[in-house]
Amino acid sequence: MSHIGRPGEPDKRSLRLEFLAVRNRLTADDLRETSAALAGRALELPELARAGTVAAYVSVGSEPGTLALLDALRARGVRVLLPALLPDNDLDWGVYEGEGSLARVQHGGRMALFEPAGERLGPDAVTTADAVLLPGLAVDTRGMRLGRGGGSYDRVLARLERAGARPALVVLLYDSEVVEHVPEEPHDRPVHAVVTPSGVRRFGPGA
To answer: 82 phi and psi, to 5 degrees?
Structure first.
């Protein structure tokens, strides 16, 4: 288990920089291998096996790769929703129809994102998902997730809570990003499971 995030913890910003620096050292071969392993592990999850709709995202840069997983879910007949970033950092959603249905969108000075090019379903579409796959930089032994800091997924989780929706919340990470502790704020909510290339770890009752 990584030492990052032990007591005497640095703040979220410096932790994010640490995790991103490790990711940026990954090679193209590393990314390919971990993407295939991650898809295999995630597809074994009962929460995904019985899901009719899964809200997910398209990985960018050195994030754990998701395209193989998106295609496998779609091949199973799962309705896959993908986010589109709105100007206020909230997320709209569209249906994934294969890699050709993605548009590369540049949001200001940030990294370009791959978003669904088709019809927009509105921010509340995520409340129809049976499982939500979340990006992140780390998760701790309680299931608390360290995000990138934009707040988009905090809004998603708050929307789910307001709607009384109870999808399975799953974060996709590298093995070294499951740590002992990450700092949390009052609005932070734990995830139910983390999938890494080497396996699945569950949190909460019955974990």
So the answer is: -120, 145
